[in-house]
Amino acid sequence: MAASHGTAIAKAALSASLLRADPTPVVGDEIARLHGLLEKCTTVCTSENIKTCKHWLLEHVVQSDQRVTAFGKYLLALSQSYKSQAADPLTPSSRRRRLYILYLINDTIHYTTFYSSPPMPFGKGVEPFLKDLFSLAQDPTRKKQRARLEKLLSIWSSKHYFSEDTISEWRNEVAKSFEHEQNIEDPQEATKEAKPKDQQVLLPALHGDPTVPYHDLPATTMLPLMRPNSPTPINTRFLKPIVLKAGPPPKALAEAVDVFVKSVDKMWYGGDMRVMPDVDEMGVDIIKPLDGQDDDLLDEPDMIKNTEEGYYGWSRGFAIQMMKRRKGESKRSESHSSER
User: Fold this and answer.
1) What is the model's pTM?
2) What does the pLDDT look like over 172-198, one tens digit per residue?
3) Residues 93 and 27 in one domain
């Protein structure tokens, strides 16, 4: 309750600073748009969402010291308001959302430092809030989270956004929080929490509910009725739950499901948020850097193509096979027509 109250106060203060003529007032619709852009940045962290929000800040915030300060206070209150476990399973965890806030700050600092003429002191304006933002973003149970925070601080150090003493203080804050949580962690509790993941999964007796109509059954119940190249539609009267063999699933099946679930999680949560997945015109995944100036965040090449599977669900090998078949059929039809 206290966090939501603090967020409301910080939000009202930010709106008041934006409505003042400093240098020009911002209309209410644009203020509402800012909060929508921030929500997108902290739930789906793509380069487009980061850039769009950054450009809004460049247009309406960075020119005013008062607005930058109010914006920094609001980001801190927003970060404090995130719950450790999101109610919606598709919403990223609080640690990720807090990390995305730092990514937005990083992108804006970089632009105002190297591309604004003259350079704008956006970094100085948000500096008083960064120690707390880094402290909130750390998660002692996630070593990757700590590595990302330290990587971000290393980049800031190499580009001299802040003094070395200040960055060292933030590094110590992240490390101190991590060590503190490690010391108080109960090893037995950690073992208990890890056990459910190691429990063997057993197949259910049926895949699908026999009491529901056919259109509510899983799509896989159509597989036994499908015939290759058959023009006859599936008879819905024969759709029924699939009987499964009792016991644990085959190892290959369990591994395939695990890989699929991880790919879905990566699609929704963005995987490593330092890279952005995209697709080309053929539906093949392309992985791009979050932004051109943040190539140092990437350990991978600038562009990687996933040659295994396309956006439309068909494997690349299957698509090539079907294209060859179609080309072969067209050649045969041309030869038949020429013989006539």
Assistant:
1) 0.57
2) 988 876 665 555 444 444 444 444 455
3) yes
